[in-house]
Specification:
Layout (H helix, E strand, L loop, with lengths): L13 H6 L32 E8 L11 H7 L3 E7 L4 E7 L13 H18 L3 E7 L4 E7 L2 H16 L3 H6 L6 H10 L5 E6 L9 H10 L1 E7 L13 E4 L4 E4 L4 H24 L4 E4 L5 H8 L9
Parallel strand pairs: 3-4, 3-6, 6-7, 7-10
Antiparallel strand pairs: 1-2, 4-5, 8-9
Helix pairs in contact: 3-4
Length: 314
Amino acid sequence: MSQGNRDPDFYTSLDTLSRLRYKATGFDFLPNQPINSLLTGRHVSKLRGRGLNFEEMRHYNVGDDIRTMDWKVTNRTGKPHVRIYSEERERNVYLLIDQRAGMFFGSQRKMKSVIAAEIGALIAWNIIGATDRVGAIVFDDSSSVTVAPHRSANHVLKLLSQVVLKNHALGVESAALSQRSSFSGFFKQAQRLVKHDGLVIIITDGYGYSSHNDDAIKKLCQHNDVVFCHVTDPLEHQLANLGDVVFSDGAKQVSLSSDDEPFREKFSSDVTQAIEGFAKLARKFKIPMLHFNTIEETDVQLRAQLGHHSRTMK
């Protein structure tokens, strides 16, 4: 099957992701969220928003905010000094988009890999509209592609092109051979790209995460805001109770027998542990988690979870 004729529920396209630009409204990642937004709550710290850049040190003038006083310089010189800051006009936002073989799954509508690509596209278009910079790491089971943060429509198209390339490399063969690789290599790449005072949005199903990566997550959270976009399919929770099942990418098929009771129990345990483990990780580091399924429209889900009302898009 050629790329041009591929089923859009199985594989995304640059045209599809580009058109999401017109649906990337009605949500944001600003510090002050609506009361029903999932970015608020007792387990979630407020997002930092844009930071401050140091501009200059000068003598204190009547009316200056006492909180900007630099006491070290004041004590050293014997004269009151204040530090002057300006608000950053732009903030770096990093999208970490999972296109591993385990994401190539969907039971009713779209694949998890397609939903992840759409989430990334919607956020990227929204971010540049807010005059912030957006970058990405798009990763599969064997490698990752890094796109440094910039702010322009052409840059977003370049970023989404990388997502499409990884997405089109998925198939039954890659899913069958996948070992659900860990996040280790991906986090090493993230540490090189992400510096500080940014917003890091990790879009994944969470499979393959291990406690060995806790230090990397901790470091990201210390100097940046981190948000999880957790993508799952409803059938993942029921697969262990099925008999023989057949999976297809629209062109090829692979069958899986679950008649073996030990197999069903282990499969059920693996799925449950993966989903619950990722939720525990979010609670441990107080990371907001947005939940996505493969059935509903991606923009509607994103808008609803960030506390904004959905409206008709043309």
